[in-house]
């Protein structure tokens, strides 16, 4: 079986581009600069309406920041999982930690049970947990389908040694999917040196706004945004380079 590419899609249009480029699956997210949060009902429905062949997974994450959630945030996650099931989404993506940096087994089990029969991916909360090999076995026991991970490093290339160990320890019981910094020029190396078969990437290019009238001195969001007249979007031409 050839490599499976999952695209981190930041919009319905990115899902269209991912499908056109030949990706097998997308993880649909909002707020990518915050590491991804749950997309809106409308964004999910639009992605479904505009695609026909690609599997759509939805991140269940009520906010950016850490993975220690309040009761109100947990309730929001449960409602979002319910929405995903009602929309017949392929899968959901989430991860929860305790204050001590361990996998929150009780909460993960609650969310996984709520998500059944959807596919479940544990996201990069795994990369900031305290004991990755303990967490690996716990996620396998919970019935999680895959782990998205950079090998507990800032990027997947730096995490190759850990990724290789995780793939070996998993031994086919759960999918280890490298992500973060997976690019056209390094995917073959990551594949060869880890033994992974699924990969997570964004394959984005810059899209420039068609706005002619621009009041650039009045920003709508964070001053860290370089320009409000450009966005990034998955590019089908880049996706095709990973296949």
Give your account of this protein's structure.
The model has no long low-confidence stretch (mean pLDDT 96). Helix content is 34%, strand content 19%. It has 8 helices and 10 strands. It is α/β, with parallel strands linked by helices and 243 residues long. The protein has a single domain, classed as Copper homeostasis (CutC) domain (TIM Barrel). The radius of gyration is 18 Å and the shape is globular. It has an 8-stranded parallel sheet with strand order 7-6-5-4-3-2-1-8, covered by helices on one side. Strands 9-10 form a two-stranded antiparallel ribbon. Helix 1 (12-21) packs parallel to helix 2 and helix 3 packs parallel to helix 4. Belongs to the CutC family. Pfam families: CutC.
CATH fold-level name:
TIM Barrel
SSE string, helix = H, strand = E? EHEHEHEHEHEHEHEEEH
Span between termini = 12 Å
Q: Give the neighbour order of strands across the main sheet.
A: 7-6-5-4-3-2-1-8
Total beta strands = 10
Number of domains: 1
Q: What would you say the CATH architecture is?
A: Alpha-Beta Barrel
Question: What is the CATH homologous superfamily assignment?
Answer: Copper homeostasis (CutC) domain
Mean pLDDT: 96
Largest sheet, in brief, is: 8 strands, parallel
* Rg over C-alpha atoms, rounded to the nearest angstrom: 18 Å
Q: CATH top level?
A: Alpha Beta
**pLDDT < 50 stretches:** none
Structural class: alpha/beta
Q: Helical region count? A: 8
Question: What does the overall shape look like?
Answer: globular
Instruction: Classify the helix fraction into a percent range.
Output: 25-40%
Strand proportion, as a percent range, falls in 15-25%
GO molecular function: copper ion binding
Protein name: PF03932 family protein CutC
Subcellular location: Cytoplasm
Pfam families: CutC
């Amino acid at each position: 079986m050839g490599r499976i590419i999952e695209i981190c899609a930041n919009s319905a249009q990115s899902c269209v581009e991912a499908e056109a480029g030949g990706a097998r699956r997308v993880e649909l997210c909002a707020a990518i600069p915050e590491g991804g949060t749950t997309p809106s009902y409308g964004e999910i429905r639009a992605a479904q309406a505009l695609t026909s062949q690609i599997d759509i997974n939805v991140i269940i994450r009520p906010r950016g920041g850490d993975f220690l959630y309040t009761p109100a945030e947990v309730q929001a996650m449960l409602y979002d999982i319910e929405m995903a099931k009602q929309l017949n989404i392929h899968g959901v993506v989430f991860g929860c930690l305790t204050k001590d940096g361990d996998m929150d087994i009780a909460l993960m089990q609650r969310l996984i049970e709520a998500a059944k029969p959807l596919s479940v991916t544990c996201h990069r909360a795994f990369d900031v947990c305290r004991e990755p090999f303990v967490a690996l076995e716990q996620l396998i026991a919970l019935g999680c389908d895959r782990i998205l991970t950079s090998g507990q490093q800032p990027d997947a290339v730096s995490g190759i040694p850990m990724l290789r160990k995780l793939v070996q320890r998993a031994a086919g019981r759960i999918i280890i999917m490298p992500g973060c910094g997976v690019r056209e020029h390094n995917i073959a190396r990551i594949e060869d040196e880890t033994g992974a078969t699924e990969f997570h990437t964004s394959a984005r290019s810059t899209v420039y706004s068609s706005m002619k009238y621009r009041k650039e001195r009045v920003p709508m969001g964070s001053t860290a945004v370089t320009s409000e007249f450009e966005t990034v979007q998955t590019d089908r031409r880049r996706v095709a380079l990973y296949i």
